[in-house]
Design brief:
heterodimer; A: 113 residues; mainly beta; seven-stranded mixed beta sheet; 11 strands; B: 117 residues; six-stranded mixed beta sheet; globular
Chain lengths: 113, 117
Amino acid sequence: DSGVTQTPKHLITATGQRVTLRCSPRSGDLSVYWYQQSLDQGLQFLIQYYNGEERAKGNILERFSAQQFPDLHSELNLSSLELGDSALYFCASSMGQEYNEQFFGPGTRLTVL
Amino acid sequence: AQKVTQAQTEISVVEKEDVTLDCVYETRDTTYYLFWYKQPPSGELVFLIRRNSFDEQNEISGRYSWNFQKSTSSFNFTITASQVVDSAVYFCALMGPMDTGRRALTFGSGTRLQVQP
Protein backbone atom coordinates (compact mmCIF):
# COMPACT_ATOMS: atom_id res chain seq x y z
CA ASP A 1 0.00 0.00 0.00
CA SER A 2 1.55 3.28 -1.18
CA GLY A 3 -0.50 5.47 1.15
CA VAL A 4 -2.12 7.30 -1.77
CA THR A 5 -5.86 6.80 -2.00
CA GLN A 6 -8.10 7.30 -4.99
CA THR A 7 -11.86 7.19 -5.27
CA PRO A 8 -13.85 5.80 -6.87
CA LYS A 9 -12.11 2.63 -7.96
CA HIS A 10 -14.37 2.20 -10.97
CA LEU A 11 -16.61 4.65 -12.78
CA ILE A 12 -18.95 3.92 -15.65
CA THR A 13 -20.67 6.80 -17.37
CA ALA A 14 -22.04 7.93 -20.71
CA THR A 15 -20.65 10.20 -23.38
CA GLY A 16 -21.21 13.86 -22.73
CA GLN A 17 -21.23 13.46 -18.96
CA ARG A 18 -18.93 14.99 -16.36
CA VAL A 19 -17.11 13.11 -13.59
CA THR A 20 -14.82 13.95 -10.71
CA LEU A 21 -11.96 11.74 -9.58
CA ARG A 22 -10.54 12.21 -6.13
CA CYS A 23 -7.04 11.68 -4.77
CA SER A 24 -5.63 11.90 -1.27
CA PRO A 25 -1.83 12.02 -1.20
CA ARG A 26 0.40 10.35 1.36
CA SER A 27 0.55 12.14 4.66
CA GLY A 28 3.03 14.99 4.37
CA ASP A 29 3.27 14.95 0.59
CA LEU A 30 2.74 18.34 -1.00
CA SER A 31 2.91 17.41 -4.69
CA VAL A 32 0.18 15.62 -6.58
CA TYR A 33 0.50 14.37 -10.14
CA TRP A 34 -2.24 13.02 -12.39
CA TYR A 35 -1.51 10.47 -15.11
CA GLN A 36 -3.71 8.76 -17.68
CA GLN A 37 -3.08 5.21 -18.86
CA SER A 38 -4.84 4.18 -22.05
CA LEU A 39 -4.21 1.40 -24.54
CA ASP A 40 -3.32 3.71 -27.40
CA GLN A 41 -1.45 6.49 -25.54
CA GLY A 42 0.21 4.53 -22.76
CA LEU A 43 1.01 6.31 -19.49
CA GLN A 44 0.85 10.06 -19.92
CA PHE A 45 1.32 12.92 -17.49
CA LEU A 46 -1.66 15.23 -17.26
CA ILE A 47 -1.04 17.85 -14.59
CA GLN A 48 0.87 18.56 -11.37
CA TYR A 49 -0.07 20.56 -8.28
CA TYR A 50 2.23 21.59 -5.49
CA ASN A 51 0.79 22.88 -2.24
CA GLY A 52 -2.36 24.08 -3.93
CA GLU A 53 -0.81 25.64 -7.00
CA GLU A 54 -0.57 24.28 -10.51
CA ARG A 55 3.07 23.56 -11.33
CA ALA A 56 3.18 21.75 -14.64
CA LYS A 57 0.88 20.68 -17.42
CA GLY A 58 1.27 17.76 -19.73
CA ASN A 59 -1.07 16.38 -22.36
CA ILE A 60 -4.22 17.48 -20.60
CA LEU A 61 -7.27 18.21 -22.71
CA GLU A 62 -9.13 21.49 -22.28
CA ARG A 63 -12.18 19.47 -21.21
CA PHE A 64 -10.18 18.29 -18.20
CA SER A 65 -9.29 20.37 -15.16
CA ALA A 66 -7.89 19.76 -11.73
CA GLN A 67 -7.37 21.45 -8.42
CA GLN A 68 -5.65 20.84 -5.12
CA PHE A 69 -7.42 21.87 -1.96
CA PRO A 70 -5.99 23.31 1.28
CA ASP A 71 -6.03 19.85 2.87
CA LEU A 72 -3.87 18.76 -0.12
CA HIS A 73 -6.33 16.35 -1.62
CA SER A 74 -6.84 16.78 -5.34
CA GLU A 75 -9.67 16.35 -7.77
CA LEU A 76 -9.55 15.76 -11.51
CA ASN A 77 -12.65 16.89 -13.37
CA LEU A 78 -13.40 15.38 -16.74
CA SER A 79 -16.25 16.90 -18.76
CA SER A 80 -17.99 16.33 -22.09
CA LEU A 81 -16.71 12.80 -21.92
CA GLU A 82 -15.91 10.89 -25.07
CA LEU A 83 -15.39 7.20 -25.67
CA GLY A 84 -11.67 7.83 -25.99
CA ASP A 85 -11.49 9.13 -22.43
CA SER A 86 -11.94 5.59 -21.15
CA ALA A 87 -8.71 4.88 -19.29
CA LEU A 88 -7.08 4.24 -15.96
CA TYR A 89 -6.38 7.50 -14.16
CA PHE A 90 -3.59 7.49 -11.62
CA CYS A 91 -2.73 9.97 -8.97
CA ALA A 92 0.80 10.06 -7.57
CA SER A 93 2.27 12.06 -4.75
CA SER A 94 5.71 13.12 -3.60
CA MET A 95 6.94 15.19 -0.71
CA GLY A 96 7.94 18.12 -2.87
CA GLN A 97 9.76 19.32 -5.92
CA GLU A 98 13.12 18.27 -4.56
CA TYR A 99 12.00 14.73 -3.92
CA ASN A 100 12.11 12.34 -6.80
CA GLU A 101 10.08 9.32 -5.84
CA GLN A 102 6.44 9.43 -6.80
CA PHE A 103 4.10 6.99 -5.12
CA PHE A 104 1.05 5.96 -7.04
CA GLY A 105 -2.49 5.36 -5.94
CA PRO A 106 -4.46 2.30 -7.10
CA GLY A 107 -6.06 4.25 -9.94
CA THR A 108 -9.61 4.98 -11.05
CA ARG A 109 -10.82 3.00 -14.03
CA LEU A 110 -13.14 5.16 -16.11
CA THR A 111 -15.37 3.56 -18.71
CA VAL A 112 -17.32 5.85 -21.03
CA LEU A 113 -20.15 4.13 -22.87
CA ALA B 1 12.24 16.68 -25.35
CA GLN B 2 12.38 13.63 -23.16
CA LYS B 3 11.73 10.17 -24.50
CA VAL B 4 11.90 6.63 -23.15
CA THR B 5 11.95 3.61 -25.42
CA GLN B 6 11.22 0.07 -24.32
CA ALA B 7 11.58 -1.87 -27.54
CA GLN B 8 10.48 -5.20 -26.07
CA THR B 9 6.70 -5.27 -26.06
CA GLU B 10 6.36 -8.71 -24.53
CA ILE B 11 8.75 -11.31 -23.17
CA SER B 12 7.88 -14.83 -22.15
CA VAL B 13 10.24 -16.96 -20.08
CA VAL B 14 10.08 -20.12 -18.06
CA GLU B 15 10.47 -19.95 -14.31
CA LYS B 16 14.08 -19.77 -13.08
CA GLU B 17 15.32 -18.22 -16.32
CA ASP B 18 17.10 -14.86 -16.15
CA VAL B 19 15.52 -12.05 -18.13
CA THR B 20 16.67 -8.54 -19.05
CA LEU B 21 14.30 -5.71 -19.84
CA ASP B 22 15.79 -2.98 -21.99
CA CYS B 23 15.30 0.76 -21.58
CA VAL B 24 16.81 3.51 -23.71
CA TYR B 25 16.21 7.17 -22.97
CA GLU B 26 16.72 10.55 -24.58
CA THR B 27 17.13 13.83 -22.76
CA ARG B 28 18.99 17.10 -23.14
CA ASP B 29 19.33 17.52 -19.39
CA THR B 30 22.70 16.78 -17.80
CA THR B 31 21.02 15.92 -14.51
CA TYR B 32 18.09 13.55 -14.64
CA TYR B 33 16.55 10.61 -12.83
CA LEU B 34 15.59 7.19 -14.07
CA PHE B 35 13.00 4.86 -12.59
CA TRP B 36 11.54 1.42 -12.96
CA TYR B 37 7.94 0.69 -11.98
CA LYS B 38 6.10 -2.62 -11.93
CA GLN B 39 2.42 -2.94 -12.81
CA PRO B 40 1.08 -6.35 -11.76
CA PRO B 41 -2.24 -7.68 -13.09
CA SER B 42 -4.02 -5.95 -10.21
CA GLY B 43 -3.17 -2.63 -11.89
CA GLU B 44 -1.30 -0.57 -9.34
CA LEU B 45 2.08 0.96 -10.14
CA VAL B 46 4.80 -0.16 -7.76
CA PHE B 47 8.04 1.80 -7.47
CA LEU B 48 11.14 -0.40 -7.87
CA ILE B 49 14.16 1.84 -8.18
CA ARG B 50 15.44 5.37 -8.79
CA ARG B 51 18.84 6.13 -10.31
CA ASN B 52 20.44 9.58 -10.51
CA SER B 53 22.30 10.49 -13.68
CA PHE B 54 25.44 11.30 -11.72
CA ASP B 55 25.59 7.88 -10.10
CA GLU B 56 26.50 5.17 -12.57
CA GLN B 57 26.97 2.41 -10.05
CA ASN B 58 24.93 -0.64 -10.82
CA GLU B 59 22.53 -1.78 -8.18
CA ILE B 60 21.40 -5.17 -6.98
CA SER B 61 18.42 -5.85 -4.78
CA GLY B 62 17.79 -9.52 -4.24
CA ARG B 63 16.96 -11.07 -7.61
CA TYR B 64 16.74 -7.64 -9.25
CA SER B 65 19.65 -5.75 -10.73
CA TRP B 66 19.95 -2.61 -12.79
CA ASN B 67 22.63 -1.64 -15.28
CA PHE B 68 22.90 2.09 -15.93
CA GLN B 69 25.13 3.08 -18.85
CA LYS B 70 25.22 6.79 -19.55
CA SER B 71 27.36 6.28 -22.67
CA THR B 72 24.58 4.36 -24.37
CA SER B 73 21.68 6.12 -22.59
CA SER B 74 20.43 2.82 -21.28
CA PHE B 75 19.03 1.66 -17.96
CA ASN B 76 18.39 -2.06 -18.21
CA PHE B 77 16.69 -4.23 -15.63
CA THR B 78 17.56 -7.86 -15.01
CA ILE B 79 15.55 -10.37 -13.03
CA THR B 80 17.57 -13.40 -12.02
CA ALA B 81 15.87 -16.75 -11.51
CA SER B 82 12.47 -15.40 -12.52
CA GLN B 83 9.34 -16.45 -10.67
CA VAL B 84 5.69 -16.55 -11.68
CA VAL B 85 5.04 -13.61 -9.32
CA ASP B 86 7.33 -11.48 -11.50
CA SER B 87 4.70 -11.58 -14.25
CA ALA B 88 3.72 -7.97 -14.78
CA VAL B 89 4.19 -4.99 -17.04
CA TYR B 90 7.40 -3.12 -16.29
CA PHE B 91 7.81 0.55 -17.05
CA CYS B 92 10.97 2.57 -17.33
CA ALA B 93 10.57 6.30 -16.70
CA LEU B 94 12.59 9.52 -16.85
CA MET B 95 12.37 12.70 -14.79
CA GLY B 96 14.10 16.03 -15.32
CA PRO B 97 16.13 18.05 -12.84
CA MET B 98 14.79 20.10 -9.98
CA ASP B 99 13.67 23.67 -10.67
CA THR B 100 12.39 22.73 -14.09
CA GLY B 101 8.99 21.97 -15.50
CA ARG B 102 10.11 18.41 -16.20
CA ARG B 103 9.46 16.85 -12.80
CA ALA B 104 6.69 14.64 -14.07
CA LEU B 105 7.56 11.13 -15.19
CA THR B 106 7.95 10.36 -18.87
CA PHE B 107 7.18 6.68 -19.24
CA GLY B 108 8.18 4.14 -21.81
CA SER B 109 5.51 1.99 -23.40
CA GLY B 110 6.20 -0.87 -21.02
CA THR B 111 7.34 -4.47 -21.38
CA ARG B 112 4.93 -7.23 -20.49
CA LEU B 113 6.79 -10.09 -18.81
CA GLN B 114 5.14 -13.47 -18.59
CA VAL B 115 6.84 -16.09 -16.47
CA GLN B 116 5.53 -19.57 -17.15
CA PRO B 117 5.70 -22.22 -14.43
